[in-house]
Structures are given as structure tokens and as C-alpha cells.
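Query structure, 157 C-alpha cells:
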């Protein structure tokens, strides 16, 4: 996974001013986030995460979703589990534009879902709620994305 794939997501003709892509557009432009984008759409969060923000999203790639027990993702995408899905997804979002330099100064963040998630900084890297942060500071017009290797589950779900 490279940051370059995100940077090249919005190209434009020379002389044309192109608006920087928002968080949803950045994620949708990368094949590593197809499951996350499908979940955001099923939860009706695409408009919110495309809005003014700013938001910080700790975004799991497809691989962590695939590690969930068989059938979990398919179940969460069903309309009757929308509230649970919204809770899980909003647990990955923090209000504000929190860069990696700022994350390493924190011990916890309050998520949009309402719960706090612990941040641990060590010699081996940074984790949030036990998920390793594997790529940081992917900028969008309305915030920033940090890629994580685990789907975090809020304590209340």
C-alpha cells in the first residue's frame, strides 16, 4: 500500500484547478478499501464523511475485514444490522484533523461513536485500540486517513 496511489487519485489537466478529493473519494480511489467503502455506503455514512469535517479516519484495509469470522461482513452489511455497523464505523472516526505527529502525543481519543480508544506509542510503532497504524497522514480535503491493520470493535458492541 503506498501513499502515491492516493496522491495520484485526483489528476487534472494542466491549468485546471481540481478540488482535492474528500475522505470517501480518497478511499474509493484505492482498491485496498473496497470493503470499507461498501460498509460506509451501507451505513449511509458516505455523505457525512464527504462533508466539511474535518475528520480523522483510522481506516482498515480489506485484509482486516477478511480476518473477521466468516459471514461477519456480509451480516453487518444487511439493513437490519445498520445500527451496529454505524457504531463500528464511527468508532474508527475522530472529529478533527489529527496528524500522525499529533497522534503520538496522545494516550487516547474520543471517537465519533462516543467511546474512547487507547493510543499506545512504543519502539515498535503506534496502536489504537490494539490496531497497528501502518500508514499515516493520507490527506483529504476534509481530514486525514491513517491506515490500520485491524477492524476495531467498540466496547459497547
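Result returned for the query:
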Amino acid at each position: 500500500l503506498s501513499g502515491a496511489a492516493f496522491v495520484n487519485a485526483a489528476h487534472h489537466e494542466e491549468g485546471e484547478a481540481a478540488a482535492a478529493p474528500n475522505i470517501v473519494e480518497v478511499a474509493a480511489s484505492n482498491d485496498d478499501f473496497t470493503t470499507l467503502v461498501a460498509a460506509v455506503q451501507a451505513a449511509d455514512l458516505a455523505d457525512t464523511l464527504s462533508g466539511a469535517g474535518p475528520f480523522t479516519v483510522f481506516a482498515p484495509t480489506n485484509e482486516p475485514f477478511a480476518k473477521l469470522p466468516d459471514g461477519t461482513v456480509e451480516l453487518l452489511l444487511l439493513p437490519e444490522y445498520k445500527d451496529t455497523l454505524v457504531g463500528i464505523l464511527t468508532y474508527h472516526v475522530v472529529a478533527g484533523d489529527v496528524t500522525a505527529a499529533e497522534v503520538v502525543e496522545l494516550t487516547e481519543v474520543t471517537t465519533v461513536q462516543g467511546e474512547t480508544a487507547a493510543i499506545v506509542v512504543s519502539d515498535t510503532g503506534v496502536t489504537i485500540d490494539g490496531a497497528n497504524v501502518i500508514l499515516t497522514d493520507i490527506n483529504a480535503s476534509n481530514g486525514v486517513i491513517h491506515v490500520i491493520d485491524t477492524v476495531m470493535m467498540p466496547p459497547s458492541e
